Write the structure tokens for this entry.
Amino acid sequence: MKITATNAKKTKPDVDKLGFGKYMSDHMLVMDYAGGKWNEPEIVPYAPFEIDPATQILHYGQGIFEGMKAYKNKDGKVTMFRPRDNFVRMNASAERLCMPQLDVEKVLAAAFDFVRLEKDWIPQAEGTSFYVRPAMFCSDVYLGVKAGANYRFFIIGGPVGAYYANGLAPTKIFIEDFYTRSSIGGTGNAKCLGNYAASLIGQEKAHKLGYDQALWMDAKDKKYIEEVGSMNIFFVIGDTVVTPALSTSILAGITRDSALKILKKNGYKTEERKISVDEILAAQNDGSLKEIFGTGTAAVISPVGEFAYKDKNYIVGGGKMGKITEYLYGELTGIQTGKIKDTYGWVVEL
Ligand code: COI
């Protein structure tokens, strides 16, 4: 791989003030698609792209992305968590958005080269990691609506802390009963740009009402729980951990899958099925709703301490992080950071 190293290294941010998505490292990886094939990837100094105003992505949004994390343990060993799964999912998103398929092994090797080059940017403090953001967009300069013939794939990355401003403090979610994020047959299970744009109004509304995020329901019946947009959602009802079954309107989260596998392997009862808001309200009212938490690469395992539905607010588990949520957070982050032995084959050493 051709690497052009920067001669203007940036100053690294203070590890206590990382937040999420604010800092980008010194380099980026770029690979273009033209004439029916991908060119060789290249690593170059991080810099803005020059974009023609008529570029398709700016008008019709044919774009997808992924999110994954790299870690550095105390001995300096660099690892990534399930990176192949992210590129496999990126290909599924590409198919839905009529974009070209990636060679998974090739982009995986390219991502490893990128992370190795940026290894000084990987923070080691508790709760921090190096977030890797692969993305792809249509670069055709043309205003007709059609799938393009030219694409740019790129990877950027940067050090991150907790996704939510209050770290691991339980978040508050607002069950959105008017707007919808996706529908059956839509793009909800693709990691495409438009899903996130469409969800902003719910997030703004939630913020105005004092909540952190909107929890989306299905578009047809406005009855069944889907996901939060930046994370999948889980409910502990009685002794069972329940999460909505995947569909074309729910993103197949890699952290969701990891959480289910960890729980199953350790003897917890899990169910993937339809969950109605009415069931959640009934469980809250009879005391069997013990915990709610979200899962995501950025969100990791995020406890939810309160939720609102139609002007009413409900406190879950005393507004504190529940036992299963805490257990999962410990197991997952332990495996990710190498403190707990990975018996699942998820951690890749670079
Ligand atoms: C992730 O968890 O990596 C995501 O992509 C969610 C969000 C930051 C958009």
